[in-house]
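User: Fold this one for me? It's Holin.
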Amino acid sequence: MLDMKQWYQSKTVWGALIAMGAPLLRHVGVEMGLAEQANLADALATIAGALGGVLAIYGRIRASGPIDFGGRRN
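Assistant: Here's what I get for Holin.
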């Protein structure tokens, strides 16, 4: 697992959140099968990744100066 990604881009995280939320939804009358949970997790991970990219671009456009990575060049 050398590839790093943000937590919101992880299908595993979204799947876990949905798995925790599914019983709560069932309690209020919304049924969600395993296939529906998997499809929702996939969709949410895709949407979150896209939104993360949009926010990164927006942040860079709105930034007032360069990014300082701690190294100085003379």
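One thing worth pointing out: Residues 7-61 form one domain.
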